[in-house]
Amino acid sequence: MVKAIQVKGLQKSFKKLRVLKGVDFEVRKGSIYALLGSNGAGKTTVIKILATLLTPDRGNVQVCGFDVVRQPERVREKISLTGQFAAVDEILTGRENLIMIAKLRHLKNPHQVADDLIRRFGLTDAVDRRVSTYSGGMRRRLDIAMSLIGKPQLIFLDEPTTGLDPEARMEVWKIVKELAKDGTTVLLTTQYLEEAEQLADRIAILHEGRIIVSGTLEELKKLFPPAKVEYVEKQPTLEEIFLAVIGKKEGR
Amino acid sequence: MEAVKKHFFSDMGVMLGRSMRHITRSMDTIITVTIMPTAFMLLFVYVFGGAIKTGTDNYVNYLLPGILLIAIATGISYTAYRLFMDMQGGIFERFHSMPIAPSAALWGHVLTSLVSNTISVAIIILVALIMGFRSSAGVLSWLAVAGILALFTLALTWIAAIAGLSAKSVDGASAFSYPLIFLPFISSAFVPTESMPGPVRAFAENQPVTSIVDAIRALLSGQPVENDIRVALAWCLGILIVAYLFAIRVYKRKAA
């Protein structure tokens, strides 16, 4: 199997704080891999190292077949990063943001690329407004759209749905699923178990600087005590009520 | 690596286009940058000017160089602000994870500073012309003035870059410019240094603003400039190089 990401013995400290204490994992090409962990577990540090923004202290990190330390330029050609804070320019319009990134990717027809993404991501109504007027969900959609420019093989999504309302979260989920269908590898981090369950082919749990378990959802479920059959009256969750009330219950 | 170098200038162009849009979208930056120095100019010419003895009959002519420096010092605080906002948001991370030269983003801001300060300097010169500023300088002298002002802008812009890159808060990012704005007051910009008491005069005569102001003033009035211009250029270049090296170091540490 071809690997999109290979990480062996990755360590990283910030001054005296040891954030990553030896992380190992592999991500298969074309899959969705979820890195699950609580705040401060080191998820963002892993992403930043993979995206060549930070250099590892120790360990071997290969992204799309290139070493992140020795060949960062080659890695950058293959990847796209959607960071924890929407990496969009607030003062520019949505369209201008897309065109800017297309130009920086040195594509031949940036306007055409922008138009295609605008249609695909349903941004048509808002695209000529400044991004500062966008809702969180729209901003995130634009953010991901910007990451798709230049057809990267691998996309990092660092907590893509943190701070989004349930509706917007489902939109992002839909986009991520479509990406994987097109053959793009996705590495996403999340604090929501449900998100990993919904999206990921494989899940790894990062805890105190190490990956403590990894596998498919089925494999992870086997690690825990077998399911017991109990009869529990199922109350609708507040989220289900919310979605039912606003009439958007599809998608689950 | 080759591809990154090949596209450096076009990438920088995109970055310049981006931050120029920031300026044209919020005209208040240009307005605040020009309004305060213009207000100083009006205040000093029409209120205090009558009491100031400079040995020239046209106080606007005397005052203009210092006002231009104040305008530039105000202008570059916005560069620090914009740079700080970029560092805070995710946009720099996106740029740095793309196959473009990391310094392209920084140079985009520096060039924007040059362009926007040129605009505000031009506006202030227009106001000065309305207020009676006249110059006997020829094309070459004007070019020399433009050169000095551009060097001064670049030098201060790189100081602003250090502030913008290393600041912990928005206020910190722009606060560094206050002493720079204040510096022309303790120089030959408003009054001749001869009228100042000993220690103040010593400071005023040996700080960069005085030599820069004197050089520009001499150029604009068609006087010989020999030593002033050399000292002025040395100050500008010296500050420029030191600030540049320091800013690049901070940038590499923060961005890598």
UniProtKB/TrEMBL annotation, chain A:
SMART domains: AAA (SM00382). Pfam families: ABC_tran. This is ATP-binding cassette domain-containing protein. Belongs to the ABC transporter superfamily. One of its GO terms (molecular function) is ATP binding. It comes from Clostridium aromativorans. Residues 5-233 form the ABC transporter domain. The lineage of its organism: Bacteria, Bacillati, Bacillota, Clostridia, Eubacteriales. Keywords: ATP-binding, Nucleotide-binding, Transport. InterPro entries: AAA+_ATPase (IPR003593), ABC_transporter-like_ATP-bd (IPR003439), ABC_transporter-like_CS (IPR017871), ABC_transporter_ATP-binding (IPR050763), P-loop_NTPase (IPR027417).
